[in-house]
């Protein structure tokens, strides 16, 4: 099953349950009492999920490691590499802009 | 009263799911791999590092110096295969000089006439690789050779088919990215994890170690071009039931030259993601 099919079937099952609930309010007191909530529950769910996603993404952006040591270390190693390469007989060329 | 609507819609859903055509990619390759690996003793392992280059005149000597420095220290058997796509800046001449310094058994040059894309560069490189493992990395110094020994240790710990470097786990990270770049990266990552559940945290990274036959198999099953090719490789790995290990890496964005993340990259990414979402 492809990921698209998984999503369609998952979504379809939820839709079926929701559709069943909103179309059978005459048979059930609970559904009648909470009809509005059930009717708008998909929208409420999507909004809540959006908030969850935004929170997670922003949290991960702020906790994304800035590897400054790695950059400093690399700069030192570039200098070292150039020195060693010249010693080994390499002719360094600068890129002509 | 039977609630026929419920059963009706459920039936509808299930029929959508099962009518759509399914492609099965079951492979017996894993068994073959295991047999081959048991015969392979540790000391016989050889690592071929593929470096596709285009206008990396300034970076290539440094990356090769660092590769030899760290790999000689670790004691693993290795070779570096430089695949230059006809760079006009003289990258190939620099590579020839380096070959004279480090030897023809360590530095192997497999240039091509013009820019032909990453996937074909890897196929081209594999053809000439004598190692049983292939390491793929960028030549622009964003990937540091010091991580290679960690990749190898990780691979050996559970005989992984693929080991992928990840910027998103543990001590991994990036340098030189502003808020917007991080936001796009994290957002895209969240979306792909949600939709594709790839079983690896860094899909677009290109610092990876593969078993040679696994890489060959993966490249042949990939259809996309450009950098999204890296994402497809990991998704196909999951699809073909290959095992993927991860190592945290630091990514230092291009020291020389310009890093690219424009509108067209984002469009490419979204298209590839949707394609994989619908087909795998």
Automatic annotation (TrEMBL), chain A:
GO term, biological process aspect, one: GPI anchor biosynthetic process
Subcellular compartments: Endoplasmic reticulum membrane
Transmembrane segments: 7-25, 37-59
Membrane-topology annotation of the record: Multi-pass membrane protein
Pathway field: Protein modification; protein glycosylation
Coiled coil feature spans: 64-91
GO CC term (a single one): dolichol-phosphate-mannose synthase complex
Broad class of the protein's primary localization: endoplasmic reticulum
InterPro entries, A to Z: DPM3 (IPR013174)
Keywords, in A-Z order: Coiled coil, Endoplasmic reticulum, Membrane, Transmembrane, Transmembrane helix
Function per UniProt: Stabilizer subunit of the dolichol-phosphate mannose (DPM) synthase complex; tethers catalytic subunit to the ER.
Assembly and interaction partners: Component of the dolichol-phosphate mannose (DPM) synthase complex.
Similarity comment: family membership: Belongs to the DPM3 family.
Listed name of the protein: Dolichol-phosphate mannosyltransferase subunit 3
Upper taxonomic lineage: Eukaryota, Metazoa, Ecdysozoa, Arthropoda, Hexapoda
TrEMBL record, chain B:
Protein's name in the database: Dolichol-phosphate mannosyltransferase subunit 1
Record's catalysed reaction(s): a di-trans,poly-cis-dolichyl phosphate + GDP-alpha-D-mannose = a di-trans,poly-cis-dolichyl beta-D-mannosyl phosphate + GDP
Organism the protein comes from: Phaedon cochleariae
EC number of this enzyme: 2.4.1.83
Keyword Endoplasmic reticulum (UniProt): yes
Gene3D superfamilies on file: Spore Coat Polysaccharide Biosynthesis Protein SpsA, Chain A
SUPFAM superfamilies given in the database record: Nucleotide-diphospho-sugar transferases (SSF53448)
Protein role: Transfers mannose from GDP-mannose to dolichol monophosphate to form dolichol phosphate mannose (Dol-P-Man) which is the mannosyl donor in pathways leading to N-glycosylation, glycosyl phosphatidylinositol membrane anchoring, and O-mannosylation of proteins.
Domain Glycosyltransferase 2-like positions: 48-218
């Amino acid at each position: 099953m492809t990921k698209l099919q998984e999503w369609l079937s998952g979504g379809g099952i939820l839709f079926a349950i929701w559709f069943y609930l909103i179309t059978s309010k005459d048979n059930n007191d609970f559904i009648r009492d909470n009809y509005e909530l059930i009717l708008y529950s998909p929208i409420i769910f999507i909004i809540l999920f959006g908030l969850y996603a935004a929170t997670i993404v922003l949290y991960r952006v702020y906790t994304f490691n800035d590897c400054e040591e790695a950059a400093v270390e690399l700069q030192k190693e570039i200098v070292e590499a150039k020195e060693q390469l010249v010693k080994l007989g390499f002719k360094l060329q600068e890129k002509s802009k | 009263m039977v609630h026929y609507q419920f059963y009706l819609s459920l039936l509808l859903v299930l029929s959508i799911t099962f009518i759509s055509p399914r492609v099965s990619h079951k492979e017996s390759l894993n068994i073959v791999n295991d047999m081959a690996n048991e015969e392979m003793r540790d000391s016989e392992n050889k690592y071929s590092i593929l470096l596709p280059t285009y206008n990396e005149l300034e970076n290539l000597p440094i990356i090769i110096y660092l590769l030899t420095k760290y790999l000689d220290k670790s004691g693993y058997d290795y070779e570096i295969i430089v695949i230059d796509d006809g760079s006009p800046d003289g990258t190939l001449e620099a590579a020839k000089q380096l070959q004279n310094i480090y030897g023809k058994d360590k530095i192997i040059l497999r240039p091509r006439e013009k820019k032909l894309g990453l996937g074909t560069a890897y196929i081209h490189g594999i053809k000439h690789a004598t190692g049983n493992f292939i390491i793929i990395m960028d030549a622009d110094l964003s990937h540091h050779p010091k991580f290679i020994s960690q990749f190898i240790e990780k691979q050996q710990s559970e005989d992984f088919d693929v080991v992928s470097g990840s910027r998103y786990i543990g001590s991994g990270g990036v340098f030189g990215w502003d808020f917007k770049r991080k936001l796009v990266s994290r957002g895209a990552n969240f979306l792909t994890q949600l939709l594709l559940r790839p079983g690896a945290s860094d899909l677009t990274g290109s610092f990876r170690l593969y078993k040679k036959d696994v890489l060959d198999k993966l490249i042949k099953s990939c259809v996309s071009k450009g950098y999204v090719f890296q994402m497809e490789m990991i998704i196909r790995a999951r699809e073909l039931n290959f095992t993927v290990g991860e190592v945290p890496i630091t990514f230092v964005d291009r020291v020389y030259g310009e890093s690219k993340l424009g509108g067209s990259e984002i469009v490419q990414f979204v298209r590839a993601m949707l394609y994989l979402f619908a087909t795998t």
